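Entry 14. Ran structure prediction on the chain below.
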Amino acid sequence: MRDFSELSDFLRSRRAALTPEEIGLPQLAERRRVPGLRREEVALAAGLSVTHYTRLEQGRTQQVSDSVLEAIARTLRLTPDEHSHLMDLARPEKSASRRTPAARPECADHGVRQLIDTFADTPALVLDRRNDVLAWNAMGHLLLATHLDVDAPDHPATRPNLTRMLFLDERVRDLYPRWHDEAQLAVASLRLVAGRHPHDKRLAELVGELILNSEDFAACWARHPVQTCVAGVKEIDHPLAGPMELSFQSLLVPGPSGQRMIAYTARVGTDSEAALRLLAATLQVPRAT
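Output, structure tokens:
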């Protein structure tokens, strides 16, 4: 039996965030018992019957047309990412082709692993769709997790996961002066992946672990943020190199695995570039024997 609870929760969270005026409906003088839009108001603005919308939100509709979903997305002012997420949640049967088979532990693509090792002064990582670190170069390890063994990604049972570290590892949390922004984006990205891969057992286990062990994660997850994140800027306050502002770019590795490479760079001539050079220089310092 299909589980539509995620769809129901998502639709309720989005209509709760809007007012009748925002979707072009008049504000009635009567006192509203709950914030946001009522189901009847969503249905009216989307051109649907109240019964049809209610059945959809309660998961009692087996077939939903694209036109109905698009009307709801317009009414609820969904972003492109949220629209895509709505389609994934409403059509879980289409995720059957993305069902995760029981297989050997995932490994980084060999060519991409070789590539990031050539980035002598650029931190770079290879991640799977769950944010497990499949590989990092020396600078990537030094930037984000110098307190972990450099070969940690080579051990599937205990390999680092960036989202888990962000919420449960205080040393990683301390790297980000704007931690709450980082946390919001991490959860929003994970929500998209979870919608696209509802049968991924390991992903579900990760979400469950974080809900149980982090109140911050649980609260943010319950708000249903949805946003893709392939590029941007991160502020990092590194214990060795100090504050820096780094641009990051995520590139999808060709193939069905969903692996991606992330590289971090600094603008030429900035203090952040000097901080990265300082960090790279520590790799050249011989260790005491």
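The longest strand covers residues 242-252. Will compare against last week's run tomorrow.
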